[in-house]
Automatic annotation (TrEMBL):
This is Tryptophan 2,3-dioxygenase. It catalyses: L-tryptophan + O2 = N-formyl-L-kynurenine. It comes from the Bacteria. The keyword Coiled coil does not apply.
């Protein structure tokens, strides 16, 4: 019987304890591999936080890519219900990722400098899960594949996503299928190129928003996309701001100008017309 007085919980007889044959929690999750993957290169206490925050972010980024790939195929198959579900999940993943900057902010510039040299030229800029996500959302840039040349499997995967229609490209096809007039140049564009704002797409979205009841599903989809961009931009901003707090205007380990390079990413919109239409309502 549980006893509230002795601050102690009895082990229950029915609890499984023999995992010589049975699959355990650690077996299922490959925890030996995961928990041995934190290998600091310096003797500095704070390097563990730095590694942990990167590794956990990488897991979330990988999951976000998994979910967004699903959203792209859902939209392709006109399965809006499932698309909404996974897009909402991606938004929450980004909120979670943005929150993690607050933990990293406990790393002071002095703490970081003690082990920064150990990183060499490695940088989050080389994160392929992040790049895949940017490509899936439509921020295409073939030059960014270069840093992945030494990893054939990753290179091929990213190259494939670079050339395929992004989430927004698929959404624009839906606009056309629902009878809204979209320029052929947009529908048959080279998907490996960055998406350029287009007037026919803007007009179509204005039509959707002005007739929200008639186009309710598209209207809901558009607002979900805005949610994702909002959450993504908050991550970008918090990254840039945390970096500024930790390294000021120093160059990045990846070789860029650092904060000023990160600031330029804030000007990139995945769904430019969805923001512009607001001015025209
Ligand atoms: C002390 C902590 C950090 C610093 C000082 C830092 C600094 C930078 C800098 C300066 C860049 C630009 C590229 C370069 O020259 O290196 C960059 C890019 C990047 N970092 Fe970080 N970062 C930090 C933590 C993180 C964490 C925890 C993540 C999580 C995965 C991350 C992910 C990225 C990504 C994805 C990029 C590419 C962004 C883009 O292409 O716009 N960074 N970082």
């Amino acid at each position: 019987m549980s006893c509230p007085h002795n601050n102690y919980r009895e082990m229950e007889e029915s609890i499984h304890t023999d995992f010589k044959e049975d699959m355990s929690y650690a077996d299922y999750l490959c925890l030996d591999q995961v928990l041995q993957a934190q290998q600091p290169l310096s003797t500095q206490h704070d390097e563990m936080l730095f590694i942990t925050i990167h590794q956990s972010s990488e897991l979330w980024l990988k999951l976000a890519g998994h979910e967004l790939s699903e959203a792209v195929s859902n939209i392709k198959n006109a399965d809006f219900g499932h698309a909404f579900k996974v897009i909402s999940r991606v938004k929450q993943i980004f909120i979670q990722l943005t929150q993690s900057w607050n933990i990293l902010s406990t790393l002071t510039p002095v703490d970081y400098l003690k082990f920064r040299d150990a990183l060499g030229h490695s940088s989050g800029f080389q994160s392929y899960s992040y790049r895949k996500l940017e490509f899936l959302l439509g921020n295409k840039n073939a030059k960014l594949l270069k840093v992945h040349q030494s990893n054939e499997a990753v290179y091929q995967d990213l190259n494939q996503v670079l050339h395929q229609p992004s989430l927004y490209d698929e959404v624009i096809k839906v606009l056309a299928k629902q009878g809204l007039q979209i320029d052929e140049t947009v529908l048959a564009r080279d998907f490996s190129q960055p998406y350029q704002k287009n007037n026919s797409v803007l007009k179509a979205w204005i039509e959707v928003y002005k007739n929200d009841e008639e186009y309710f599903q598209l209207y809901e989809l558009a607002e979900k996309l805005v949610d994702i961009e909002d959450a993504f931009q908050q991550w970008r901003f918090k990254h840039m701001y945390t970096v500024q707090r930790i390294i000021g205007n120093k160059m990045g380990t990846g070789g860029s100008s650092g904060v000023s390079f990160l600031k330029k990413a804030l000007d990139i919109s995945f769904f430019p017309e969805l923001f512009e239409l607001r001015t025209h309502l």
